[in-house]
Fold:
Amino acid sequence: MKVNDIRHVFVIGAGTMGRRIALRCASSGYDVTVYDASPEALKKAPELMRNEATEALENKWLTAIQSQDAFAHLRFTSNPQDAATADLISESILEDPDVKAKVFAQFAEICPPHTVFTTDTSTLAPSLYSSATGRPDRFAAFHFNGVWPGYAPLVDVMPVSGTSQETIELLRAFASSVGQIPMVLKRETPGYIANNIVGNVYVTAYRLVLQRDVPFEDVDRAAMGILGMKMGPFGALDFDALDFIMHQMQNAPEGDVTSKIAANWLKREYIDKGRLGRKSGRGFYSYPNPAFERPDFLNFDKPSLQGVADELKAAIDYVALRLVVNGAASFDEVDRAVMVLYCMPIGCFGLFDREGLDVVWRNLQSYAETSDDPEDQTIADWLKKDYLDKGLLGEKSGRGFYAYPNPAFQRPDFLTGGETQTRAVKQTGAQEPKRDKAIV
Structure:
């Protein structure tokens, strides 16, 4: 099946992400059915989606015609049999593998053999319930990080054991056709690409504030004024909603002490005082017109915050290198995520090339010699063997991770994943993703 063969998208779950995914697909010209077993959820969904469409219109993420057409393409149902004509299933329900397995098994009996099944899970390993789909070759994680341009429109496309390459390429093209930027992983990886990167940046930001007494405004200033991010970590936390973030941190692994401490701090200093972020009018900042949007916010002494910026960048680099060295993703997929998430013109590996891979290796080797983590030495050894020993030193040698003088990340189609995906966007009439509205 090719992307142009997808006509009917069936969204399981009328919750927040299900509704957003459905509206995005419908606004891109697909016939979309929103299914939920709860009559109450279905009753509320149309009005909530109209509110979402209004916000998208106000932010110019949708045109009035696209919004009108979207609702003409939408229908709502509590009848599972309406999936009998579905070409693609998108599941966004309770994060419980047994519940998901039961639901997928139900729809496996209803959907035709060609239907591709996807899961939007944020926290679960899709392999826990892939067999229930009855079609593991046509099943993968298809995880939306945002939906609209202002929310970092990235989709993680992650295979499970048995997912066919045809399915991966289909989902890559489908992501672009609904205005999303695909990030294709090589194997099942907890946290995908974007969640791993953003999570480590948040942990670093908490550590700077709670252990180093850096004002949160200065962390955001360093991120925005030195690293060039569209929004700093604490502005982004307000955007995500502090109560939501707190619950995520409370469920962090036992060894993640920083997240546990930060969760208690958020609860005590912000949530218990009704400061939930942008949605309540106040979080770290006051809304509307938060301080970080004022022109004078970035009037600061940059050398004084260079160390803060370096730590934030190191948090991104740390995850980026591990994702690539561990075989979870290619370096260009990681760079694509970083460029969109942080509104940067160049990603980690492009910056490594610019710095010089010999310089990067010396820094990695020096760090590995004092580190307690053997993986740090593995990364240094990988860079030396696969790049330095082959004379690939980066931009100064004409080749490193990219080839120069015209590296791939400068191509207009780099963020869409290549020419194939660009054509898919044009064929469906969807909007090309734009990096200038992406956020941290």
In short: The chain has three domains: 3-184, 194-308, 310-329+343-419. Strands lie at 8-12, 31-35, 74-77, 88-91, 116-119, 139-144, 154-159, 181-184. The CA atoms of residues 144 and 380 lie 32 Å apart.
